[in-house]
Amino acid sequence: MDSPPIKPPRGVKPVKETSGLLMSVIRTLSASETNEQRDREKAKLEADFKVCDQKLDRLVSHHENDLTQVMRLFGTISQSVTENRDKIHTVKEMLQDCKKKLRCKRDELKALWMEGLEYKYMLQLLQEIEKMNNIPSQLATHMSHKRFLHATKLLVEAVKLGKDPLEGVESLKELSQELEQRKEQLHLQILSELKNILYTKPCQHILTLRRQGSGRDGFLIHSPLQRSMKGRLSGRNRSNVSRNLMDELSKVGSKDLFSDDFNLEEDLENLNIDENNRQYVSILVKSLCLLEKLPYTLDELVREMQASLTHIIQKSTQHVIDYAENVDSKLALKELINILFDQFKEIADSHLIFLKWVDKGIKIHRINLKPYGLQYYWSQVQEVLQIFLNDYLDLQNMSTALQTDKTVESGDISAYFSRRKQQSKKKSLFKFEGSSSALSLSNALKSSKKEKVLICSSHPNNILVVFIPFMCFTEDIEQMLGMAHASCSLYGYITQHISNVYLKRKSEEIIEQVENAFKAADAWKNTVLLDVSAGYKPLLVSTVTVERCIREWKAILQSLPLYSEKIADYSVNVLKEYKDTCYAAYRGMVQPHSEDKRICSAAWLKDEDINRFLKSLPNWLNLKAQQEYHARSERGRKILRDQPSEEESPEDVRMRNRKEAEILASNLGEGGVSSSEILSDISLLKELATLQESMEWFSVRMFQYTSEFRLEPSRLSPPKPDNNSHNDLMPPVSSSTLHQLTSIAQEFDELANTCLMLLHLEVRVQCFHYLLAQAHYNKDSHEPDPKVSELSKVLANVDEAMTSSLHPRKCKYIFEGLGHLIAKILISSAQYIQVINDAGIQRMCRNIFALQQTLTNITMTRELALDHARHYFELFFLTPEEILNGIVDKGPEFSELEYMNALQLLNRSQKNKDSSSVTVHLERLSDILGEVGVTV
């Protein structure tokens, strides 16, 4: 069975296999010449036709059913088409009929249509009138819940209706005017809300955090500022809220913060819409854009910004005053500054959010406006803080004083502090102070001054309290604005004031105090006892005054660490002048006469060899070690070694004292010392002792003060969280200035050492003066020689003066070893005695006993060296042979020279002098000592 025919695709023509057959037949018939050819062609065509007819019959029979079905469907479709044609014809006839009828009623229908439009417009007007009447109540509801955006849209729409479609409605004129007034007032209310969000809320938020963090009882004690100032030295980190806010604002794609299309809607169900500040600010900004009052609002904010910041300062000041009862004013001022800085940073965050929404509103609503930036806000903050500093630093009075002193040269300190000639008052004919206008003006000025509340009295020294917090704040401003270091105007204002005004005037004040201290008539006599403990002795009032001035510089250094170089320079100037004065005072004490009558002990100290010898002795080294230990203990430093022992073996003490006595005796034993070469005035010795104690005490403080300039990290700020604290280092002091300070401190210490060694030498020089003078005094008496008694009295007076003026260890240094020296002088004096008898021996023993008793009362130890001297004079009760036999039996007790002096004195004291016998005795002495050896 053949497959049924397939309809060719649409657009494709079937191939005509016999397309040229008919034309071929026609050409053949036309070209044939005979009928036979035509008959052949005809027969051929008939045969082909039969074949085709048979094929067609076969195909028809084969597709009979399909053809039947197709014909039936064709008939159905043809009938349906015919019926639809009839219906369309009927519809056309009906439409033609309607058209004819509508043409007949056209005017009537037009009138009805126009009437319908009028009724529709009147209904719309009635709805708008009803809406206008409901707007006041809706507006009141929205305003009560602070839904400013809804209120703005209502007012804008109502004013638009009242001006255009309902302008001719007489009953709505008053309502329209009222709504226009409400529209003008609405932007003022929005402006007030903006001020509340930008200024009031951040300030209240900071104050609430402060109260929660400290409480009234612990106010200022545990505040973050106190902790930062003790540790710093920082705290310049923003609060967690501020940091989180800045992180959110840095996310540009954060669509919950700043919507791209500015399509904002208020939640009518939210009764506290102002809790979300970011959303609330966006609502207010969009409302201002709809009211077309955004430029006016920005102008008002710019115009009133400084007044708003000033008001915040006053409110915060009053808050601190209310909560800072019975608190030190400096701590209260620090707390106020900390609160203000936190508030200004919080306000900056609020302004940043506001300006972001303003930029969005300007872009969306295409407003030709350039708003202010955070740079302008921080410039206003700096101006307000400059006024704040003017109030607390009393700059107005200082500037007035500077203008008055303009004619005085800066280098002439005495001229600056000298009493100026008062100008004669010019008498005026009449004045207006008592007039009503002048009185009202003065009352207004007084009331304006009373409005400004200060937490403490205005004083230039307040800069010491505010400097470090203000420097930290200026660094924060520079970091937030991306400015270079020290480019902030507030930074320049403060540094210029400190450099050009404060430090200069403070230096002049301190120089005046120091000059008044040491130029007083009794500057080197008046003393004060700073501590009642045994280790402290009276100090010169002038020294204490100068030290107090240095402590003032130290406090200034700790408060103004950036000015260490200037402070060091000013300190050097003060200390140099005081050092020169102290050395001049010392020279006035030790050189009361002309140059040719110099004090022996002072002249000796100028000899470098003697000075070096005294400092090399163990007693001096031990004394300095003890002083160093106590100085470190006083500074509170950790001691890395044990306290130097004050105990020495008796043999060591005897050997060093003997060495010192021999050196002194070799220099002073021959010529003697006159009365003009000693300091016989005890009060002068006491002044020297007080000077020594004061200079030593002051030098320790000076070394401590100098060490302050060697500290690298300043107490300006603690390390930041990002560990970027390289900007918080104290500027280093130049090596030359530091060397000057150190050398001045060393010179004060050297002056103290000189005074102590002079007292040490002076006591010994006076022993030579009195004991060598009595060697020529030979009188039978049962009392000590007058010179010995005088020396005992002098030693007792010196001990009394030194005990009340010097530390016990220094008194020990002065009097220790004095017995060895006296014994050496007395023993050596034997060579100057012409004749000695039993009475003379007893007198010498009484002299020794008197001196021994005096020294024992001073040193509280038995002076064994004087027992040694007494034993020496007891030798004169023996004969030369007995002395020599004693050496053989017991060994030598004295030196060969001392034995020789004794043998010679015994020989001189005999009635029958024999020079040969003394020669024999001396030769035998030499032989004996050569055999047994000298062990003394």
TrEMBL record:
Record keyword Protein transport present: yes
Protein's recorded name: Exocyst complex component Sec8
Residue spans of biased composition, Polar residues class: 722-731
Record function comment: Component of the exocyst complex involved in the docking of exocytic vesicles with fusion sites on the plasma membrane.
All copies of domain Exocyst complex component Sec8 N-terminal, residue ranges: 50-141
Lineage top rank: taxon: Eukaryota
Species this chain originates from: Dendroctonus ponderosae
Sequence similarity: Belongs to the SEC8 family.
UniProt-annotated stretches for the region Disordered: 634-656, 712-731
Keywords: Exocytosis, Protein transport, Transport
Gene Ontology biological process terms, A to Z: chemical synaptic transmission; Golgi to plasma membrane transport; protein targeting to membrane; protein transport; vesicle docking involved in exocytosis; vesicle tethering involved in exocytosis
Ranges of biased composition (kind: Basic and acidic residues): 634-644
InterPro entries linked to this entry: Sec8/EXOC4, Sec8_exocyst_N
PANTHER family in the record: EXOCYST COMPLEX COMPONENT 4 (PTHR14146)
